[in-house]
Amino acid sequence: MTSQALPHRERRTILLAHAAFVLTGVVVTMLGPLIPILIARWTISDAAAGGLFTAQFTGSTLGTVLSSFLIPRRGFRVVLALSLFWMAIGIMALALATWPAGVGAVFLYGIGFGIAIPTANLLVSRMYPENDAGPLNLLNMSWGIGAIAGPIAISALVGEYRISIFFWMLAALLVGCGLAVATSSIRKDVPGPEKTGSEPSIADRSGKLNWQLAALFGFLFFIYVGTENAFSGWIASYAKRLGDAGSMWALTPSFFWLTLVGGRGFAPLALRRFSSRTIASAGLVLACVGTITLIASDHLRTTVLSALIAGLGFASVYPIMISGLSRHFGDQAHRIAGFTFALAGMGGAVLPWVVGFVADKTGSLRLGLIVPLAGAITMLVLQPAEGRNIE
């Protein structure tokens, strides 16, 4: 079934889900280019600024847990609308907050997008019961559009007073989209039993859950999400401190997200010719090269190049990890999914903070960026270990 076969009112809901995901992409990734502005506004240290990432991803982890309770009770549509309102409240609070109340505002909108991401994915999946991956890929491409567009908007409104316009406009769009979602309609809004009869996984055939492999996946998710966000979250601050004129520094995260999203679009073609482990290892090598280039960078153009290289490197890694989780654990994947994604959220909360802590203690953000480099190297080293565990 394609979107053309859906009733008109449900096609409208699909479009609203895409609009919600564009806005969610802006919200999830806006903290990176906002960090230099918030440091100046609140006169805080790098370590304190790193704590904002901790607040954001702690909130998103809580939101993900909340979504599993809310969706069966209120349905996808109401929960998605609630998440959009929740993000809007957090962003309005951030526009008005002083330090340290801003930490609470970031935590609040983190809860919102933590609810929105699984809810929108499950909503679209529910509307295409044949489990076609195409609609979900398109939905997450919409998230990528938001991730790219957010730094562009911040760069255009980078002045101390004009940045408030960004907050209020984004909050207004979230409220408007939330109202539209709340008044839309879909079939089977409340989830029912999952389908069965799929090809048994390695874990299903053995009858036992490989907790050693589960722990390895959990650690990889922790490192990946932390590493990606440590790089993307601090690159704008690093670019600004190079001293280049203008507001181009705020655009640097957009280059990262541009190649990350584009790389995920081309990854299925590469996977037809090469194994997933080969693609992931090659991507991690590129991520290391991009991070080393960033650490060595003394000019904005080199920083942009490092963002492009690292984004392309990270592009295939997370989808391959998700696929591997499903392939290795099959119907038992739900037993470790909460554990795994909670660790992923913790990685996003911890590693960007460590970057700020190291930068604050050493007086050098360049040294702080050794943290994502260490993360990429760690994942590269653990690739063969994953292979040995599944044989």
3D architecture notes:
This protein has 15 helices and no strands. With 391 residues, it is mostly helical. It has two domains: 1-188, MFS general substrate transporter like domains (Growth Hormone, Chain: A, Up-down Bundle); 201-391, Growth Hormone, Chain: A (Up-down Bundle). Helix 10 packs antiparallel against helix 15 (370-390). It starts with 7 loop residues before the first helix and ends with a helix. Residues 193-206 have low confidence and may be disordered.
Count of strand segments: 0
From the 3D coordinates, which CATH architecture of the largest domain would you assign?
A: Up-down Bundle
Provide the number of structural domains.
2
CATH topology of the largest domain: Growth Hormone, Chain: A
Count of individual helical segments: 15
Report the mean per-residue pLDDT as an integer.
Answer: 82
The major beta sheet can be summarized as: none
What is the helix content? over 70%
For this structure, what is the CATH class of the largest domain?
Mainly Alpha
SSE order: HHHHHHHHHHHHHHH
Rg to the nearest angstrom? 20 Å
> Beta-sheet strand percentage?
under 5%
Q: CATH-wise, what's the superfamily of the largest domain?
A: MFS general substrate transporter like domains
Low-confidence stretches: 193-206
Span from first to last CA? 37 Å
SSE class: mainly alpha
Outline: globular
